[in-house]
Fold this protein.
Amino acid sequence: MSNFSRRQVLGGAAGLAAASFIGTGRSAFAATRKLIVTEPGHSVDSLPFYVGIRKGYYKEVGLDIQLVTSEGGGKAMAAVQSGNADAYIGGPEHIAFADIKGGQPINAVVALSNRANSFVCARTGVSVDPAKPFAENIKGKKIAVGTRGATDNSVLLYLLKRDGLDPRTDVVMLEIETSAGRIAAMKNGQADMAMVFEPFISQGVKTGIWQEPFASMPKELGLFSWTTVNLPEKTIKSDPELAKAIVAATRKSLELIFADEAEMRAIAAEEFPTLPKDDLDAIMTRARDNDMWQRDGSMPEEAWTKLESILTISGMIKQDVPYKQIFDPSFL
């Protein structure tokens, strides 16, 4: 829904200090600190962050994470801008939007996902062929997507222009803010297709609302800045130990995702308790097959370049926003 650095990567003693937070189990702070973190939706691409909470990795570095879920990346970002939250996990493109408007500077410090966690499903009964080009399958269709400013909205506009389609005449974009609203539009036949993500994909397939995805955004787009952990720049400057602790705990969480699949799936079951095991297994497999998570937490400039081009082509931004304004990889 989203780039290189103004600082050099920490090395030597500083880098070892970051690692020591986790390696020794030592708290980064004298007392546990409460940290309110917002997210635009409870989603599989953010699973590493949930792992860190449930495994106590953030507690190990002295942080008590209070996670608040809201619908929409703009709302999650606004909570940080207003001082009602300390950080947010979500698309770094909202940092660019705020920078352009002159808002409080915020920086991404570690990546959870460098793939666009979005797929296109056709309603049951609507004819599609995954072997055909994306443009052939969507031309003339009504597509349920997020409202202007949402990442999936920008991605769809980018793909339409990439494939020579006019968003005003070749398709109908039904802009619907919530996931529940997009599901309802598919269920009642108002939409032919929808941009969706897990766990909604599996739920929709199981209930017969739509078919398995015919288009994968991870495959369509490649490297793409999708989900990062983001802190106010003033916090990073005034309290670098906090940023260092968050990055260290998050990287340990990412490592578990790849090193212990059984535990990863067990934690996912706790995070999405209403999902049947078969559905959850399908979700985890889809995430793995599409390289959803970023094992080392890195934030490649190429990933931001792709996202920025999408935002520019879709008209969401009209000026270059340099990588160094958005990302601070120094704590990696």
User: Anything to note?
Assistant: The two ends are 23 Å apart (CA to CA). Residues 1-20 have pLDDT under 50 and may be disordered. Strands lie at 33-39, 63-69, 87-90, 106-113, 119-122, 142-145, 172-175, 193-196, 215-216, 227-232.
